[in-house]
Design goal:
The protein is an alpha/beta fold. Helix content is about 35%, strand content about 20%. The protein has one domain: Phosphatidylinositol (PI) phosphodiesterase (TIM Barrel), CATH 3.20.20.190.
């Protein structure tokens, strides 16, 4: 009987330790309820997916992908080419708003493409929207113009400035963005990310693929008083591996599982 008590005490202590370990990690839906997830109810970056993710209990927010139209409007869309996921052709940055408003995803529910300004009101108090800026116009193989992009953020955030954070993979825009918004660099590898942190002190931190970084590297980043968020987390095993590294937060493709595994409301 004594050994049984010790056994169950160990389970309780292990469970408490695990919960304490993960309870302060922020959890966001990746592109809503997951990026390119076959079992997802809604297509990534759709208004429906973002709404569902924001309304799950204890969700800290979502990450979305944003592109600029010819009219200077920010639209949610991940892929470079519209024909990859929609009934349209070409690039978001080559079409006007009316043309984009007529497009829908090639899914059973045929969700419409949506503007950034139309998902901002879905945010609840205390939630954050990470905007992953897709700056390349693939139809021309060049970056979009920076000035209309900044004008779009200024005009279309419409009072949600404090709830929006920018992710940018183009280092030459980091300083300008970081003067106005909480800005994070999307790093291809950790060594590149460390260099960015040292050379661009205004940024808030890094966004890194889960498998590309370890616990010690995350600790180094946090010791520089920067935040680190992990993405490409597509299973319960991946969620647990990400939590074990103690990042600031994760962008989960299995949002429900990530919230259940964390087990705490923040």
């Amino acid at each position: 009987m004594r050994y049984v008590k010790i056994f169950f005490l160990g389970i309780v202590l292990f469970g408490c330790t695990k919960s304490e370990h993960v309870k302060n990690i922020l959890v966001f839906g990746h592109a809503g309820m997951g990026l390119s997830m076959l079992n997802s109810i809604y297509h990534d970056n759709s208004k429906e997916a973002v709404s569902l993710a924001l309304n799950l209990p204890t969700s800290n927010g979502v990450e979305v992908d944003v592109r600029l139209s010819v009219d200077g409007t920010l639209w949610l869309y991940h892929d470079e080419w519209l024909e990859a996921e929609t009934n349209g052709k070409g690039c978001v940055s080559e079409l006007i708003d009316f043309q984009l408003s007529e497009l829908n995803y090639q899914t059973f529910k045929q969700e419409k493409l949506v503007k950034l300004m139309d998902v901002l009101p879905l945010l609840n108090d205390g939630q954050t929207l990470f905007v992953d800026l897709k700056q390349v116009n693939s139809c021309r193989n060049e970056n979009v113009d920076f000035e209309p992009l900044m004008n779009a953020f200024e005009d279309q955030l419409a009072g949600y400035h404090g709830q929006v954070k920018i992710i940018c993979s183009y280092k030459y825009w980091l300083n300008d963005l970081a003067q106005h918004y909480d800005t994070f660099y999307s790093a291809d590898n950790v060594e590149e990310g460390k260099e960015i942190i040292l050379n661009y002190p205004l940024i808030k931190g890094l966004v890194v693929r889960n498998e590309a970084i370890n616990k010690q590297e995350i600790s180094w980043i946090k010791n520089q008083h920067k935040e680190v968020y992990l993405f490409d987390i597509r299973s319960l095993k991946g969620i647990r591996k990400a939590y074990a590294k103690k990042p600031t937060g994760i962008f989960a493709d299995e949002l429900r599982k990530a919230l259940e595994e964390r087990g705490y409301a923040l």
